[in-house]
Amino acid sequence: MGQQQTLTGKTVAILATNGVEEVELVQPRSAVEDAGATTKIVSLQPGEIQAMNHDVEKGDTFRVDSVVADCTPADFDALILPGGTTNPDKLRQDKNAVRFVKDFFATGKPVGVICHGPWTMVEADVVRGRTLTSYPSLRTDIRNAGGDVVDQEVVTDNGLVSSRSPDDLPAFCSKIVEEFAEGKHRVQAQGATAGS
């Protein structure tokens, strides 16, 4: 099973913008890089993004690797959606970010989302029929968008890994490495060639 944990050769997109919760970007990024993946910060504009600590104090800045308008899910093997309240609020107002998330889910590739991150998923209409968790203030939005919300440290639903808050990061980071190593889920990826 250990070999399945390796992410060598995989590229993981981290979709984030100004206001991202720093620890929710840094710890998942480190976890997948430690497992061998390459990460790319995908954002709304080139340059740098300003991370925050608990939405109140400025954290570090992070270099943007790619602008979301220029990206497609074909460029990546997995996606991380960190939180922070203003980060997903800005992302869900950007048509290119919403399109990227919607298209990414359509591929069946694994996605990790934490805290306020599901706001962008709600806007992309990809929570319908899925079970996930989030920060408490988003749960009504998720339910209204057709998702099933549970209050657990980490929830996995067919390649979608979700957690509630930075307190859940150890479990979240471990689970995204596992799910990203598995890649596309058979149920999601089934097509004309699936069978026997």
Task: Give the topology.
Elements: E1 11-15, H1 22-34, E2 38-43, E3 48-53, E4 57-63, E5 66-67, E6 78-81, H2 86-91, H3 95-107, E7 111-114, H4 118-123, E8 131-132, H5 139-144, E9 148-149, E10 154-157, E11 160-163, H6 169-182, H7 186-189
Helix pairs in contact: 1-6
How does this structure look, described?
By secondary structure, this protein is of the alpha/beta class. It has a single domain, classed as 3-Layer(aba) Sandwich (Rossmann fold), CATH 3.40.50.880. 32% of the residues lie in helices and 23% in strands. It contains 7 helices and 11 strands. The protein has helices at 22-34, 86-91, 95-107, 118-123, 139-144, 169-182, 186-189; strands at residues 11-15, 38-43, 48-53, 57-63, 66-67, 78-81, 111-114, 131-132, 148-149, 154-157, 160-163. The strands form 3 sheets. It has a 7-stranded mixed β-sheet, sandwiched between helices. It has a two-stranded antiparallel sheet with strand order 3-4. Strands 8-9 form a two-stranded parallel sheet. A hairpin with a 3-residue loop joins strand 3 and strand 4 (57-63). It is globular and about 35 Å long. The protein starts with 10 loop residues before the first strand and ends in a 7-residue tail after the last helix.
